Amino acid sequence: MSRIGKMPIALDSDISAKINDGIINISGPRGALKMPISSDVNVEIQSDKIVLSPLSDTARSRAMWGTTRSIINNMVVGVKQGFKVELELVGVGYRAAVKDNFINLNIGKGHSVRLVIPEGIKAASPKPTQILMEGFDKELIGQFAATIVKQRPPEPYKGKGIRFKGQIINRKEGKKK
């Protein structure tokens, strides 16, 4: 039994959920999201909650039960409150600037990196070494943040690179003579 899958997802009065042809649609004050439902899970929308149950007792069905519940819960939280991600740039001369629909990164390469901000994400750079992003789709915002971090991941010797705020970098000791 999935402890996560057993918990129902509460729906507030300003959030609506519908299932059409195996696709769940959730809309709220911040926007609308949709996702195909796994064929291993049964999803029922009751008056003020969403209840999930596995269709069989296989390992895949039980795994998809908890996974589907977590994804649907993230969709409900996203259309109600939204998600925020904060990135830090650590390194001499590392800077970020948000202009129009682009993030411009100067991260120690011979050229500056210019990334297009996807629709549904609002990005800002209050300091040159900080990027703030917010949106209602957790998957989209997490994937875009990972794309930014991938441009210059933190290295273990000096700790330089782009990292999530609060991320701990295990530092290594350098060469000894």
Tell me what the structure shows:
The chain has 177 residues and is an alpha+beta fold. The protein folds into 2 domains: 3-80, Alpha-Beta Complex (Outer Surface Protein A, domain 3), CATH 3.90.930.12; 83-164, Outer Surface Protein A, domain 3 (Alpha-Beta Complex), CATH 3.90.930.12. Helices cover 23% and strands 36% of the residues. It has 3 helices and 13 strands; from the N terminus they run αββββββαββββββαβ. It has helices spanning 3-6, 59-80, 138-151, and strands at 9-10, 16-20, 23-27, 32-36, 41-45, 49-54, 83-90, 95-99, 102-106, 113-116, 121-124, 130-135, 161-164. The strands form 4 sheets. It has a 4-stranded antiparallel beta sheet with strand order 11-12-7-13, with helices on one face. The protein has a 3-stranded antiparallel beta sheet with strand order 1-6-5, with helices on one face. It has a 3-stranded antiparallel beta sheet with strand order 2-3-4, with helices on one face. Strand 9 and strand 10 (113-116) form a beta hairpin. The radius of gyration is 20 Å and the shape is elongated.
- Assign the CATH class of the largest domain: Alpha Beta
Count of helical stretches:
3
CATH topology of the largest domain: Outer Surface Protein A, domain 3
Q: Kindly provide the radius of gyration, computed on alpha-carbon positions and rounded to a whole number of angstroms.
A: 20 Å
Note the beta-strand portion: 35-45%
Q: Detail the poorly predicted runs.
A: none
Short précis:
By secondary structure, the chain is an alpha+beta fold. Helices cover 23% and strands 36% of the residues.
